[in-house]
Amino acid sequence: MINYDWFKEYNNEFPTSIKEKLNIFDLAGFPDRELVVTNLLKFYFNPNQEHGFGDLFFHALLELLYEKDGKSRYKDFEDFEKHFSGNFTVRKEVDFIDLLITSGESENIHKPKEWAILIENKLKFHLHNDLVKYWKSVNAGLKIGVVLSLYDITASDQFIKANNLGFDFVNILYKDYVIKLEEYLKHYKFGYDERHLMLLKEFILNIKSKYFNVNTIPQMEEKLNEFQKHSDEIKEFNKHQDDLHEYVSRQLHAVMTSFCFYAYNWKEFLRKEDDFFPDQHFQGRLPEKHILGFKINIEQLLFNNILSGHYFIQDDFKYAEAIVNELSQNFVNSKTIWFEKDAYHNQMFIIGFNYDLKLLGNEMSLKYKLTTCLNQHFFDNNKIVPTSYAFYNSLLQKENLQ
User: Fold this and answer.
1) Alpha-carbon torsion, ordered 254, 259, 264, 268, to 10 deg
2) pTM for the whole thing?
């Protein structure tokens, strides 16, 4: 006999899962699209754009570059920063370089520049880009290459190759960059456009979501240790659940079979829901293209003792309006009726149901309660299933007489 006394205490004060907040990039369906983020970066790096943040993005990048690469070569940040002073131009997709920031405002990309910052944007994929080729394609007196990525890529072949050749590429992580942006925003009080502040915050939220829940949660660690300590009991408990799940499925299959409805997946007993269709003799009494069926939620039966699902009638559009009117008049008070189209564009008339079997008494067997409930609501005279047959046949007879 397994002791489950620990189980109640284990469930008490269980830490709430930290759920990731949706952002506008998630809702739009492109949270990981590098091109989308490159476009956004190009916009915010340009101090002359309408966002009103000036060179905030650029200075945040320079500060990280100094911390990563400049401290050993420059006296201080001011000394480093002055090498990138003056106006600059931001371009996208120059010789396959995601972003290229160069000194001056000349549109002639091949004209020598005082300085240049090459940015490779890596949100999702491995670094396979030819950084050496990128470096050689830019004509500037002072050059720095940046790989802006979610995770460390300094061990990648292309990064090592470029730096071994003396080309100055630095890996900056997005998490460090957005932290720096947030620090700058705290001191940026005036001049920005509220719409672009909202977009910027959504961008930061999207980046932070990539690192979601990476920190250790002590309460979760405790629960994990306890879970592993009782793993044998939990496995045994799960086996009992599977045994009960199969028992409930078999009872439902038996009851539906007694009504001449058979499970579509008749050999599987651990499904969340099952589809049931009438046998050939039963179905043969229906007009062509008319299919009856039940979709029943097994988990609702197992956990809540509730018979829940849908009864559906599939037909072409010919009888659509008449069927709906007939079923609505007889069953609208206790059922929900709606329409949809299947993959073959036939009309589906779906009647939702949800019956609490506990109302029939806990002393009764599951099989008895299922039989009673299905009879009462679907299979007795003047209920949905016989009404469906009778009405279809009457429609067919009227058509034959015309």
Assistant:
1) -10
2) 0.56
